[in-house]
Amino acid sequence: MGQDKAFIQIGGISLFDHVYGKCKELFSELIIVTNQPQQFCKYQAHTVIDALRGAGSLGGLYTGLMRASNYHTFCVACDMPFLKPELVSYLIEKRLNYDIVIPITKEGVEPLHALYSKRCISPIKKLLERGEFKITRLLSEVRVWYCEEEELKKIDPSLASFTNVNTKKDLLKIQRMLKGSQWEAKLELS
To answer: What confidence tens digit (pLDDT) does each residue in 6-29 have?
Structure first.
């Protein structure tokens, strides 16, 4: 993107602020894993520096799980502005007997919109020590419940929850869809 995605504005709200607001509704403990903690000091959250720089999302997940006080932790990327609290709550309900509760659509698994248990810490550490940085490598190491697309669509018919911004093209697409008005309502209609 050529800039920090977290603070890109969509509909007058930064990507991060929207995700933060939704998570604040759901959780009493929020952990922000970043290499730039000074950018997040105004938020009511535990802001921690990546324990392993250069380890990507898996390193961030490892750091967050290590710092979390709860056994299960919901992990979400900062660039998912259409997060639906109802869907997150549904994933949390499915946590018993599983180390990961993860959505899966025709696009694949959504590792940055999933629930992880502390039991994942040791397998993540082993992956990181081997230089493997993909979260999806973790899935074969622990007990996983895959939330299938049909189930997801009952709560989020357009699967908007998994919309993220990786390119300027993604950003323009979302902005075109929203046209400056109430963004979630617009997205649900498409």
So the answer is: 888 877 888 899 899 999 999 999
Q: 2 lies in a domain?
A: no
Is 95 within a domain? Answer: yes
Q: How many domains does the chain have?
A: 1
Full DSSP string of the chain = --S-GGG-EETTEEHHHHHHHHHHHH-S--EEEES-GGGGTTSSSEEEE-SSTT-HHHHHHHHHHHH-SSSEEEEE-TT-TT--HHHHHHHHHT-TT-SEEEEEETTEE-TTEEEEEGGGHHHHHHHHHTT---GGGGGGTS-EEEE-HHHHHHH-TT-GGG----SHHHHHHHHHHHTTS-HHHHHHH-
Domain range enclosing 45: 7-189
pLDDT tens-digit series, residues 134-180: 999 999 999 999 999 999 999 999 998 998 888 888 877 777 766 54
pLDDT of res. 177: 63
The CATH number assigned to the domain holding 82 equals: 3.90.550.10
Residue 185, token pair as written in the block: 């309502």
